[in-house]
Amino acid sequence: MTIRANARRAGLISALFACGMVFAADPAKHQLQVTAESKSLPADSIVLRGDHATTRLYEALVKAFEKAGDGRVAVQPFSTVSGLDALHAGTADVAASARAAMPDRAQEQGTNFYPVAWDALVPIVAPSNPVNGITLKQLHDVYLGRITNWKDLGGNDAPINLDGVAAPLDGVEYSTRLLLFHYGDQNVSVSRMYVNTEKLEEDIALNANGLGMSTLSGVMHDPKVKLLGVEGVRASTATIADGSYPLYSAIYLATRNGGPHSAEAEKFVAFADSDAGKAILRQQGLVPNADAPDLTTTKQAARIAFVDAHLKPPMLTMDGRPVSAPNATLDMLARESPKSPETQKARVEAA
Q1: pLDDT given for residue 234 in this prediction
Q2: d(CA 93, CA 87)
Q3: At what angle do helices 326-336 and 341-350 cross, to 10 degrees?
């Protein structure tokens, strides 16, 4: 099955439910339920809504925020788009996202995206799978349907059941495709679709031939799944911080100006960046932005060049080093760190 994850196909989940391919509650009914719950919340509460990959991380942050007496937060995990759209509609005050903003998407215009910490996008398989690692090129070709058997990855002679998240523009899916293809809504071949990363992880645990993407923070303590190394490097907070694990990715909190609880929402974002907040993020297997500032600046262009060099022959060289095509470099940097000096330099080089 070829899936294009973009906003124009937001009806994908409903179609998959109709086909019996996603095992979760009807998202439309879920939205109605969430709206009703939001109306019954205490007046001083703010609503945090977003994808499962990030909201489950922020739950610990919420508990500490509330314990400190800074306010109350209602956490509503569902999907990236639902969180950002609820923020746009005014039914949520903060959105949690495992992907950067899409400036050309109307519902995200005027939204403030705050990078909070770095996580790792990790390929996961069942513990019984004999494969322990995968290359960027192999992962790229699995997503395109060019590699379909585990024997081509050094495993058993069995089909690869590639799992994905059906929700349009899901954070983990979008960020993975952005790194591998420079387009978060790249066409890919995915045989099994799930409503969120938690359901995907449940399937991988039971599926000897399954392969899917999750986050280090989400599965690092889960014995039911096995993390594959990428290019011989295992994901860890150390390999995220030094940039040696190539599939590191930012997670975000998003707010909008002028909302009924915008001041309270900004207070929660500020708490995430406080010493207490950063300590909690580290406990969740994340690398706070302040712990690795060069991931946003000097190491970004090098990481993009590294990934591209392993996916295709280098198109340019600089000082004997392979570099990505200038337009591709600019596109990637502009999404991750639009105001950094490296992005401005890439803009000049692309022009």
Answers
A1: 97
A2: 6
A3: 150
